[in-house]
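User: Predict the complex with TNX.
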Amino acid sequence: MKALLRVITFFTLIFVTTVVVAQDICIIPTPKSTMLKEDRYTLTSPINVNIGDQSLSPIVDYLSEYLVINKTNKNGDIKLNIDKTLDVEKYRLTIDSAGITIFGGGYGGVFNGITTLFQLLPAEVYSKQGIATAEIPYCTIKDAPQFGHRGFMLDICRTWMDKQAVMEYIDLLAYHKINVLRLHLTDDEAWRIEIKSHPELAEIGGFRGSDSPIWPRYGKWNERWGGYYTQDDMREIIEYARVRNIEVVPEIDLPGHSLCIATIHPEILCNYTPNTTASFGYDTRSAFCASREENYALLEDILREICELFPSTYIHIGGDEVDMSQWKRCPDCSRLMADNKMSNTSELQRYFMSRLTDILTKYGKLPAVWNEAIDGGELNAETLVYGWEGVKECYESVSKRYQTVVMPGQYFYFDMKQSPREDGHDWAAIFDWQKVYEFSPTSVGFALDEYAYIAGFEGSFFSELYASHTPEEPTYLHYMTFPRILALAEISWIATNERDSDSFYKRIVAHYNRLDAMGVSYRLSTPKVRYCEGQLSATVDDNSTIFYCREPMTTEMLYTKPIVTDNPAEYSFVARRGRAKSATAGVDAHFKTITPAFNITSSMPESERYSFDKAENYGRLARTTRAGDVDDWIMFTFDTPVKCRRMKVATGNFQLPRYIFENGYVEVSFDGYNFTYVGDLECGMFTIEYPVKPIKAVRIISTSRGNGAEWVSIQPPTIYPLL
Ligand code: TNX
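Assistant: Here is the predicted structure with TNX placed in the model:
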């Protein structure tokens, strides 16, 4: 690899004659104090690096991935050293005629200094191709983080990311001084870490679809798909992260979110037989029985290996969204509760979490839990609580004096949509980078003396939706998380609660060059569209390029000047820049939908509570009372044939391809009697484009049996009128 770099750099040296100068300093996250001077230091390849402490040697290897480095004992261009009088993550970076000197309180401090140095270099540094020469300004930067926990969580359960993909993402986190990566290793949909004493967990639980007993609930229905990390893989990931000042914290999500392990080991479930007719015999129960003693022995096997594998202080043991109705129905759990005078199932959850805490203590670790786990009474005082449901829950945790990771979904769940018409969840909120940036503990009511209990912030990417977006290419992951991560990095680092969104936006835009060089498919700002006196115009404020489409065409044309038109609704716009892309923009009429009267009929019975009229009224979802079988059908019949340019019909929940017909096709009828095939379902849905005549009826037909659940959801159709 290094040899290759040298070759590439040799050619760069010959062919690239321009010297890129770091002009305006723009460092994300903002350093505490920066003093700039007029002069510049010229850095030329190969760059001599000298370290004053052997523990810093991994940083030299790290640098060699990006620059052509010559390790020396003499005075180098870059001198790295440790100053034990500083806090571990604190650093001092000086650039003057003697070169670049970084003193860090510890390894992390020096690494933080390196990430700052990268942002003083030309953006090309991130492309790992070496830099011929660069002029960097003389300066003194003294810097330290506000919070020790600057985290990010990847849900590699719902959507599998292999070792390489995780490492590539670790690079992106490290560039922005994020120092904790939590891996959500187990959930209902998968078990992603090798457990040597129970190899079946990952060998079976790492794969879904095809002949796997694990149901593919979020995409990739027909293939056997997935993977898991062997313990050796994980050690590599941990080490890769450690070099980049990132601690990997594992999460084994218990006692709920355990459908996957329960599918492999049904004996862990509560002691009753559920009725599974609606799901064709598939048991969808997802909680460990809290009263079954053998469960704690199994969990000790698992947690012992996890404790031995991960060097982190904390092991996250879940505690969220437990379906406690299973415990209520279980005679053994009821007896345990009665014997121990527990008045509710939250107390039973506390009992479960305390048992796990004892195991962790035995192996030298501390527990981390989701906020619901503190509802049932006191936990070990050293428990780290992750407040996710809302600010209120974070507040409760802090008031109970737990160290708290503040990550309410309304600000920190980067699987949420960034604007109403984009992809993503919306249960917590719809928000873009600005809302993240404007968050501070005081802005949501924390008092300054409560900061002592705020460990820091964590962004997260739950990945139910990622599986249906070609995860082999990280486009969707990047789009959802950048630039929101820049805002997360900034607010976790800086020591002030003052926010200036306009100036931060300018810095995000100045950072685009670097994101381009890093290979990130980030989200650009949405173009602003205006229609005035017959002219339709679109503008962006970030130097990206605008393209437009005119219905019914789907080809993108370069937008260069206002479009003269009587029908602005025909046009849509998108901004692009390299791999980056914006949301689609247009005048309101472009997105307008109509709601003609229709009724739903089906071969499957109608749910009483979620009756078909819910969807017929275009408000909510309707449901059947069982999953679909081969040849089951759902039909939408319109009172009057509907003229439209586009009609989307869908099974499954809004945003989420779950409770769907996993495979099937769609037929359209113009007279209500004769039906013609128009296409196959994709993620439970299909969009009819420019039907040749008004549509009288649409029929969705299933070609698969079951969907891993007890019903099929039916959405109201989305109908776009003719223009
Ligand atoms: C809530 S976060 C969950 C996850 C989902 C996420 C989707 C948490 C503790 N539970 O299981 O994936 O919402 O946004």
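Residues 1-23 have pLDDT under 50 and may be disordered.
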